[in-house]
Amino acid sequence: MRFKNISPAGALDLPLLGRVVEAGEEFDIPTDRGQLLELQPDIFEWVDRPAGEPTVKELQAQLREAGLPVSGTKPELLARLTVAKDPEGTSE
Q: Whole-model pTM?
């Protein structure tokens, strides 16, 4: 996954990479670690996001509109949204 540091704080020490990431810098990170950065959309922008792939921020907005909790990992948010859209589990 490729991310960009968009933090208003500027350069950040990123232990997941073991180095400082400069303000505006784009960097590559393994998917398992990138999923953690995706949970911080105000600090890191996912720059190589596949078309149609929702961001955590987008999922949180949809859950907020539905009056549902917005915390959790991306898979948890997706599952919560799926259940909310089809509570009986009837769609294929």
A: 0.71
